[in-house]
What we know:
By secondary structure, this protein is an alpha+beta fold. Helix content is 17%, strand content 32%. The protein is built from 3 helices and 7 strands, in the order H-E-E-E-E-H-E-H-E-E. It has helices spanning 2-12, 65-68, 83-89, and strands at 20-21, 27-32, 44-53, 61-64, 72-75, 97-102, 123-132. Strands 1, 2, 3, 4, 5, 6 and 7 form a 7-stranded antiparallel sheet that branches. Strand 3 (44-53) and strand 4 (61-64) form a beta hairpin.
Amino acid sequence: GVRMLLCVCALAGIHASPYTTTQTGLQYQDLVTGSGTVPQAGDTVRVHYTGWLNSFESSKKFDSSRDRGQAFSFQAGVGRVIKGWDEAILGMSVGTRRRLIIPANLAYGARGIQGVIPGGATLYFDVELLGIN
């Protein structure tokens, strides 16, 4: 029964992704689900984050508030950060830690950021919503 089904699925290359994909193409996976308030557009939020190119295991880490030991604050949902962040943060409750896979069109697009993020890059983030100011 079940063992046979698993074998068939493995052979067919079918696997359930741990990520949820939104209509925009943002992918996320909650590592920790918080129980706090969910921010509204316009709220100022505090987060810890790390960002990578290529994959979460990549040596190409390009930024991390954790490494600096200083949380990052911004106004959520009003275009102060990349679109993928705005979308992700407005769906998180305080205390949630989420992995994000952000396609270029929700990040820095075809242009990228010279010397840091190549054009067309998919970005990988680990983001924790620490609080709402």
